[in-house]
Amino acid sequence: MSVFEHPEFDSHEHVAFYHDKPSGLKAIIAVHNTNLGPALGGCRMWPYIDSQEALTDVLRLSKGMTYKSAMANLKLGGGKSVIIGDPRKQKSEDMMLAMGRFVDSLGGKYFTAEDSGIAVGDLKTMATQSKYITGVSAQYHYNNETPDGNPAPSTAYGVFTGLKASVEYALKTDLKGVRVAIQGVGHVGYRLAKHLHEHGAELFVTDIFPEGVERAVQEFGAQAVAPEKLYSLDVDVIAPCALGASINDETLPEIKAKVIAGAANNQLAKETMGEVLRQRGILYAPDYVINAGGVIDIYHQRMTSSSEALRTHIEQIGDTLKEIYQRAESDEKATNIVANVIAEERFNHKA
Ligand code: NAD
């Protein structure tokens, strides 16, 4: 398998492969760039078809973390790890212990955290083997939620802050009476709905599971919408908080909203769709900028900080987005492209 010639290689500093025969662990750690600090990025366990697919995923994700941390003003680089296997069938304590040893073997160049298939409990097991495991003990919280290491409350607050800034920029208004359609009312989408409701927004929600929708209808007076109808609604804002690639060839022509601002990763099916959105006068909040509250939370878990410092840091997401919007407007470029340029300016220089 070629690594250096891989299309997603993009000058990665370090790519490590690990096999632990007794537990069956097969894992890859990718460290994209550590100019700003040690690499941070979650550990994903997924039933990849083969190691080539796992390598593609880990390289793409670790690069994304370099951009995310740079835009969140963190002294961190980008990295990611993947475990090849079905988390429901193949995960074991021995495997998580082995993964902890693998992370430790990089000597602090890479810190891991949660991602799909890996929960706080798994990280706690890994943490018995290494001090480079994060996301296990949130110390600070601004929202009276139990600080259990889950960063979703901080992600939701960051998305709320960014959505508010985007509405101020595009619609020149606060959130009172603004119509927001949320796709996916899970950990982040539900909390985002709560913040928006408290600030007077009118909500439309959808999910493939009815429980979350019913909760939002009862608690926030949201209107329930069928999943396939969400993108064509006559609303001001669409907040994708479900899966990636929700802005695609099918949904893009239907969008009437003037702002897209949500938590999901990789919202644009193709990078070129950012330019299409710009030409249609739709303001797009680059996903990795607006959803950085989680990584900011994890950063603060690792240092002597305070709930107030965490909150202030998350609120910078709104300022960063406004900087992107102003530059995109003056350079006549798409917001996703401008975000990449600013991130590269930041991480291409050593801290
Ligand atoms: P979650 O799984 O708790 O919630 C996602 C919700 O979307 C679920 O309720 C699911 O049923 C729903 N959903 C899935 N497909 C759908 C569809 N086609 N139509 C409507 N609803 C659908 O996940 P989460 O933690 O709330 O994260 C939401 C998104 O934000 C994900 O894309 C995630 O990668 C991203 N994100 C999350 C965090 C975090 O801290 N949790 C941080 C950064 C980015």
From TrEMBL:
Residues 149-350 form the Glutamate/phenylalanine/leucine/valine/L-tryptophan dehydrogenase C-terminal domain. It comes from the Bacteria. NAD(+) binds at residues 184-189. Keywords: NAD, Nucleotide-binding, Oxidoreductase. The active site is at residue 80. Coiled coil: none annotated. GO terms for biological process: amino acid metabolic process. Pfam families: ELFV_dehydrog, ELFV_dehydrog_N. One of its GO terms (molecular function) is nucleotide binding. Belongs to the Glu/Leu/Phe/Val dehydrogenases family. Catalyzes the reversible oxidative deamination of glutamate to alpha-ketoglutarate and ammonia. This is Amino acid dehydrogenase. It comes from Alteromonas confluentis.
